[in-house]
Amino acid sequence: MGAKRQKLVLIGNGMAGVNTLEHILKLSPEQYDITVFGSEPHPNYNRIMLSYVLEGSKTMDDIILNSWFWYEEHRITLHTGTTITAIDTQQKIVTADNGLTAAYDRLIMATGSNPIILPVPGHQKQGVVGFRDIADCSVMLEAAKQYRNAAVIGGGLLGLEAAKGLLNLGMNVTVIHLMADLMERQLDPSASAMLKAELERQGLHFLMEKQTAEIYGGERVEGLTFSDGTKLESDFIVMAAGIRPNTALASASGIEVKRGIVVDDYMQTSADGVYAVGECAEHRGVCYGLVAPLFEQGAVLAKQLCGVQTKPYEGTQLSTKLKISGVDVFSTGVFLDQPELTVIRKQDDWKQQYKKLLLKDDTIVGGVLYGDVSDSSRIQQWVREGTAMTEAIYAELMGAGGTVLSAADRVAQMADDEIVCGCNGVSKGSIIKAIKDNSLTSVDEVKACTGAGRSCGGCVPTVSHLLQYVLGDEYAGQKTKTGICGCTDLSRDEIVAAIKEKHLTTVKEVMHVLQWHNPEGCSKCRPAVNYYLGMLWPQEHEDEKDSRFVNERMNANIQKDGTYTVVPRMYGGVTTPEDLKKIADVAVKYDVKMVKVTGGQRLDLIGVAKEDLPLVWEELDMPSGYAYAKALRTVKTCVGQQFCRFGTQDSIGMGIRLEKTFERIDMPAKFKMAVNGCPRNCAESCTKDIGIVGNDGGWEMFVGGNGGIKPRIAELLCKVKTDEELVQMVGAFTQYYRLTANYLERTSEWVERIGIEAIKAEVVDNMDRRRELYQDILAVLAELKEPWSTALEEQRESSYLFDAIQMK
Amino acid sequence: MTTQVNKDLTYIKIGTLEDFRERMGRVIRLNQKEIAVFRTTDGTLYALDNRSPHRRGGPLAEGMVSGHFVLDPLYDWKIALDTGQVQAPDSGLVQTYPLQVEGTDVQLGLTLEQAGQLGLER
Fold first, then answer.
1. Among partner residues A69, A448, A807, which is closest to B14 by beta-carbon distance?
2. Contact indicator for A536, A544 with CB cutoff of 8 Å
3. At how many degrees (to 10) do helices A15-27 and A291-305 cross?
4. For residue A163, what are the contacts with CB-CB under 8 A and spacing of at least 6?
5. What is the pLDDT of residue A397?
6. Among A197-201, A444-448, B50-54, B95-99, where is mean pLDDT lowest?
7. Is the Cα torsion angle A61, A64, A66, A68 positive or negative in sign?
8. Do A805 and B26 touch (CB under 8 A)?
9. Which of B13, B27, B81 to substitute to test the interface with A, most A CBs within 10 Å?
10. For domain A419-479, is the CATH number 1.10.20.10?
11. Where does this protein have coiled-coil stretches (chain B) (predicted)?
């Protein structure tokens, strides 16, 4: 490996430190032998997302940023659960609480910060916690199961996120705030009042201008007393009154500390070879508690450590976004009214929106947004660059008078270093360079080349405007014709027409005859073409497993560790004691990691090894539940007429009948149904591809609902009187969808594209067409085989799909 | 186990040609290590570590094979089968291993060091 590597030690295995390492590994992967010490027993995780874990929208696993494997792969020695207790800055050695020592040439301190625990009497009682790490989060999740009344001290960013999380966990939550306004360090009184009203509407309680004097109770907390003598009963208290840089180690080691560990513009501390980054550092008198500065600091430090020329770090202009679902708040720069500032304000109490821009002598110095924060990145940029207010900006932001800027003008005004894609950190400048250097002409090409727009897709409109900006009319010309993916210029309809006309029957043939640019296609077009072939030639086309996505090929859902989940069919969500026993026995025997009840009323065996799949299927001896497929997943049912006093129809019976009739057939996308026995709609028809609601005289059929990424409420397709009519209508609708939808297009998008009236005309009003569609789908259904038993038969001949070749 | 030494590489037999189907990866397990073997449409065989370089890991053998690339089944990264290089805009590298075909036998080439690490005798 040539020259001897220098030793780099990182204290603090969190976002600031590890982000710096990632930069270093990119710049100069061979320069350092890296050792990391972390007090927490976890690899690096996204601390900002703890709110989501608490809220329940993400799991702990989801927020891991660097897996154990990442450390291994980069040959980083990682000591978790190990706290450094001393730094000898002369000998350049660190010592840990468990006696471990490590010598360094360079040392990075990224010790972060600790929550401030108010030193009021009783603060050490059981049931009082901070909200800072995974351990705190686990304590809060546990507390919510046992206790009812929570108090959160602190109405700032972190306090409100913690409070909302506890509320979602079912606790009765009161937020106690010392000041008159929530988030007063980020918001002005108007936005703060709107925020408070909204959070009250969501169920939080507030006690404003209250100072906690004492926490009372026995061993465990029972309540709080305030300085005005009033009390609040509470059996769980979260302190979110702020954070304090964790500097104990630095000051004990003789490194200069004020509020934080003092660093210069290159993140160097007072000790030779020792650097600090993130929340523990104090730069030009400022300690930051948000994520943006830590990334900027890390980038400068990494360059410094790798001997790469770098601009000094000159501080970060802060902006804030609150991470609570359904509440959008943003502020940046100066946000409070002051006599010398000009304030532009627009408050809309009906739409619950608020916008404010603050000017100092015509220069934009700050802004606040509530309700709609789509202007946040532009305001941030204006403030950062000290942009002067113009008629155009005014018109654009306040939407009245003047000329409104076109989207193209707006992207033209963006700075080159402004981030367009926040998920992948791609700037306007790098997108423009990529478009020019590689002659890119479509959003997909920009995605492939730069990564912009590949994660959440929120910036795709901006990317499109950038293309327009660079290419001008050439781009407009391109836009009219886009293929289904980068491998072809042909649209879905052109491909389907050609398959019919030229009678193409295999994926290979389609790609060859239609002159795909990429002869064997990609993960987008291969499954799509395979579906279109099966849809057009149900008898003739032989399904091509190598063009199926892994889940459909394996008849099980792959998990991130390479194990699979198994969901047996449970028609209408009804099972029997015998089946439950069997499922339990299999779960025990094959040591599945979890048995979960799914959203669609099924049981999911999570964590089955690939080799065990055939054995599990064989022992279950139940049909596949198709939880992995672009096909009918489940028919969710309510109890209905059989048992429920409100039931007017046999929803379970109808659900089972529909599931047995329409299972297994390939669809453009996954497909969910629900059947309800009365309009109370307990099985939630409004978010299903087909949702059926029974009433005294028959059934109502709703279509195009979706509860996923883009929620949509289903629309009424028709009302029918008899069960026969209903089954026929479901069949005809489903077949029409199969024939006309784009691959991966859910009914929610398809109904909007085709239009409900057009679908009614084809499926409801035209009796002949309805009958024809129904007959066609029945013919296809008749040919289908149960996939697990089929796979088992095949597996007896060859275990190719499931077994590894075992050496030795 | 058949072994054959050639230019400092130890070749071990991992199967015969019919053990590897076109465009359908297969896992070879050597003690604790998993290697994914792919056979492309033109008949070329490739061997790579069965582990995505994506920071969240995951297997590669179940990926879709297109030309001389495999598409990571979990994160859709495009990885060159011959070099193990992850294609832009993503980046990363997967360890590749040489394969040779003798008659119908498929043999995997390991350096002495790799063979030693996997606990395979010469």
1. A807
2. no
3. 40
4. A150, A152, A173, A175, A199, A204, A238
5. 79
6. A444-448
7. negative
8. yes
9. B27
10. no
11. none
B120 within a domain of the structure (yes/no): no
A682 is in an annotated binding site: yes
Find how far residue B28's CA is from the centre of its chain.
8
**Six token digits for residue A597:** 């009840």
The CATH code of the domain at A630-794 is 3.30.413.10
pLDDT at A808: 65
Domain ranges of chain A: 6-113+245-305, 128-241, 328-405, 419-479, 492-548, 630-794
- The partner residue sitting opposite B31, judged by closest CB among A447, A800, A808, is A808
Count CB atoms within 10 A of the CB of residue B109: 19
DSSP chain B: --EEEETTEEEEEEEEGGGS-BT--EEEEETTEEEEEEE-TTS-EEEEESS--STT---STTSEEETTEEE-TTT--EEETTT-BBPTTS--B--EE-EEEETTEEEEEEEHHHHHHTT---
Contact A724, A736 (CB under 8 A): no
Query: What confidence tens digit (pLDDT) does each residue in A272-305 have?
Result: 999 999 999 999 998 988 777 888 899 999 999 9
Which one is the CATH code of A128-241: 1.20.1250.20, 3.30.420.40, 3.50.50.60, 3.40.50.1970? 3.50.50.60
Q: Which residue bears the tokens 């003739």?
A: A540
> Residues A109, A257: contact at Cβ < 8 Å?
no
Identify each DSSP E strand in A624-689 by its residue range: 632-637, 671-676
Whether the CB-CB separation of A741 and A704 falls below 8 Å is answered with: no
| Domain range A6-113+245-305, its CATH number among 3.65.10.10, 3.40.50.2300, 3.50.50.60, 3.40.50.300 | 3.50.50.60
Q: How many CA atoms lie within 13 A of A34 on its CB side?
A: 27
Reduce the DSSP state of residue A265 to 3 states and report it: coil
Distance, C-alpha A602 to centroid of its chain: 24
Q: Are A470 and A436 within 8 A, CB to CB?
A: yes
Decide: A773 and A732 in contact? Cβ < 8 Å.
yes
User: Chain B: which residues have CB within 8 Å of chain A?
Assistant: 1, 12, 14-15, 19, 21-24, 26-31, 34, 41, 51, 53, 55-59, 62-67, 71, 73-74, 76, 78, 88-90, 120
CATH of residue B56's domain is 2.102.10.10
Does the pTM of the predicted model rise above 0.90?
A: no
Closest CB to B67: pick one of A454, A519, A807: A519
Contact A526 B15 (CB under 8 A): no
Contacts of A70 in chain B (CB under 8 A): 55
Looking at the complex, report in whole angstroms how far the Cα of residue A207 sits from the nearest Cα belonging to chain B: 43
pLDDT of residue A692: 97
**Are β-strands A603-608 and A564-566 bridged in parallel, bridged antiparallel, or unpaired?**
antiparallel
ipTM confidence score: 0.88
Q: Burial code of A145-160, b = ≥16 C-beta within 10 A, e = fewer?
A: eebebbbbbbbbbbbb
- pLDDT computed for residue A593 by the predictor: 93
Are B40 and B23 in contact, with CB atoms under 8 Å apart?
Answer: yes
- The domain tally of chain B equals 1
**Which DSSP state fits A442?**
S
Q: Identify the pLDDT of residue A576.
A: 95
Gap between the Cα atoms of A487 and A505, Å rounded: 19
Given a cut of 70, the residues of chain A with pLDDT beneath it are 1-3, 323-326, 399-409, 422-424, 454-458, 476-482, 808
- Domain A328-405 is of which CATH architecture? 2-Layer Sandwich (3.30)
Using an 8 Å Cβ cutoff, are B115 and B10 in contact?
yes
The answer to whether position B121 is within a domain reads: no
Residue A151: per-residue pLDDT? 96
Separation between Cα atoms, residue A507 and residue A513, nearest integer Å = 10
